[in-house]
């Protein structure tokens, strides 16, 4: 049977807020979890992923989990370690203990951020490209994908790891013309990831059907994802403001953009 009750971690965040609005239209009943209170949602669980009792209770009885909680940008390693690495491990342990069958993991383009962007008209980046994290943040997403693979191989827990591009209401940079995932397509992709059968651990790229696409959406389409949006209507205005991205500029040479050109944030 198709999953109906879904735990959404990171429900107070930007993507969580967008998905709280959109996923119920696909028929889901959402349970919400975040370390910050979720506005106008008194039933949401306010707890850290490190709170294993709260996490287990939140996971109990759901059909699937969409795991968005975590630090969503580069940060000192200790913070990434706590929320993204240990936090994702805690989530999978709760899922295993409570017998949940399916996780949709919010991975990121930054797990493979050092991959050169494809030449114009060249082959698109495949999902099988090696991990090339561009930050401690990207490293935590590579870890999450490997953790998902381990929990499939050891415990039979299915995951779709979605390497999300940029999911915001509108693209706001020329880079996002290639990576944009419209919120409506994001909900379509999560719906496909929740309902496709026999996914084992599947890695997909998460974007709309952008004219300037850099990566291969075929594994996402194989789940039943049919994107309807394209960033191209935003292109003229963004290029007029920011110029065409120059592939010789280090910020535009690689998938991860400026994440590849900033030094790591050391502990302090
Ligand atoms: P966000 O930063 O707005 O939301 C993340 C949420 O996770 C926050 O509400 C935060 O309170 C919560 N959180 C952080 N640490 C936690 C912990 N230890 N315990 C419980 N909750 C915790 O980020 P956004 O943009 O909503 O992204 C959601 C997820 O999708 C993140 O995992 C991010 O890495 C991933 N992602 C998002 C992209 C995007 O375009 N929005 C692109 C690629 C990946
Ligand atoms: C991400 O992984 C971030 O969570 C998001 O805030 C954006 O920076 C996005 O990547 C991006 O690369 O545009």
UniProtKB/TrEMBL annotation:
SUPFAM superfamilies: NAD(P)-binding Rossmann-fold domains (SSF51735)
Xref: Gene3D superfamilies: NAD(P)-binding Rossmann-like Domain
Limits of the NAD-dependent epimerase/dehydratase domain: 6-168
GO terms, molecular function: oxidoreductase activity
Keywords: NAD, Oxidoreductase
A Pfam family recorded for this sequence: Epimerase
Keyword Oxidoreductase attributed: yes
Domain of life: Bacteria
Family: Belongs to the NAD(P)-dependent epimerase/dehydratase family.
PANTHER family: 4-EPIMERASE, PUTATIVE (AFU_ORTHOLOGUE AFUA_7G00360)-RELATED, NUCLEOSIDE-DIPHOSPHATE-SUGAR EPIMERASE
Protein name (database record): NAD-dependent dehydratase
Organism annotation: Streptomyces abyssalis
UniProt lineage: Bacteria, Bacillati, Actinomycetota, Actinomycetes, Kitasatosporales
């Amino acid at each position: 049977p198709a999953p109906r009750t879904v735990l959404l971690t990171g429900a107070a965040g930007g993507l969580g807020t967008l998905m709280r609005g959109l996923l119920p239209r696909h028929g889901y009943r959402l349970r919400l979890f975040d370390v910050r209170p979720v506005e106008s949602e008194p039933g949401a669980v306010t707890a850290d992923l490190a709170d294993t009792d709260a996490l287990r209770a939140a996971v109990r009885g759901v059909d699937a989990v969409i795991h968005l909680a975590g630090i969503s940008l580069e940060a000192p390693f200790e913070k990434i370690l706590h929320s993204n690495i240990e936090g994702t491990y805690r989530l999978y342990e709760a899922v295993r203990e409570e017998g949940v069958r399916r996780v949709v993991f919010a991975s990121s383009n930054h797990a493979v951020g050092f991959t050169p962007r494809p030449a114009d008209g060249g082959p698109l980046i495949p999902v099988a490209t090696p991990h090339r994290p561009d930050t401690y943040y990207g490293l935590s997403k590579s870890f999450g994908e490997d953790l998902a693979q381990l929990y499939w191989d050891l415990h039979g827990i299915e995951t779709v790891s979605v390497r999300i591009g940029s999911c915001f209401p509108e693209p706001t940079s020329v880079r996002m013309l290639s990576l944009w995932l419209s919120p409506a397509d994001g909900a379509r992709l999560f719906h496909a990831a929740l309902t496709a059968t026999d996914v084992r651990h599947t890695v997909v790229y998460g974007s709309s059907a952008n004219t300037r696409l850099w990566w291969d959406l075929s594994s996402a389409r194989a789940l039943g994802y049919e994107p309807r949006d394209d960033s191209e209507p935003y292109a003229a205005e963004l290029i007029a403001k920011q110029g065409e991205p120059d592939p010789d500029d280090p910020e535009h040479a690689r998938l991860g953009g400026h994440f590849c050109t900033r030094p790591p944030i050391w502990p302090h």
